[in-house]
Amino acid sequence: MQAEKPRPTPCKPPPLFQGRFVATIGHDTTFLGEYFSDDYREKFRMRISFPNKTVALDQLTLFREKSMYDISYEHKTCEKKSINLPFPPMAIPPGAVFEKQFVLGSLSEPGKGLLLNVWSGTDPQVTGRYEVTSTEDGCLPISTRHYKEPDWHTAVFHDAVYGIEDPNVFIPPSFCKTSQAQNSNEVDG
């Protein structure tokens, strides 16, 4: 009789990593982006572009400094907002329930497949259900789905890189130095 393999436990991705994603909200809003995550210093940057539109979003959040910057390189503008939010690591959420494990690719030869874990649960911050898929080895995010009335919000991650290629990505551009935090734009958790 073969011993049963232990069930996976919630994991954390590397403390420094970056990658790209495709996200969809409902049936009609899709956007592309890249993200940079620094768990050590609680910093996160996300750059988003919308296909066939000139609108773009570049957002730098410095959680320890309680600041968020909405940056426009095109217009050389920077709106600084005060925030009161905890740093959201890209880890499997506490309390997540292991659902299943599967292989992306093939098991017929070594190195031809990627073992993935699927987790689910409820998130009180978005008052809805979620499903997260990550790699078994390294705990890199593959996809997330959050249900927030009335739609699913879905993100698929790719091109993950361990570490941050350009640490300056967490430094606001020089034209942000004249921006003062806007109390009227305070964001709370």
Automatic annotation (TrEMBL):
It holds the Pfam family Ependymin. InterPro entries: Ependymin. GO terms for cellular component: extracellular region; lysosome. GO terms for biological process: cell-matrix adhesion. One of its GO terms (molecular function) is calcium ion binding. Belongs to the ependymin family. This is Ependymin.
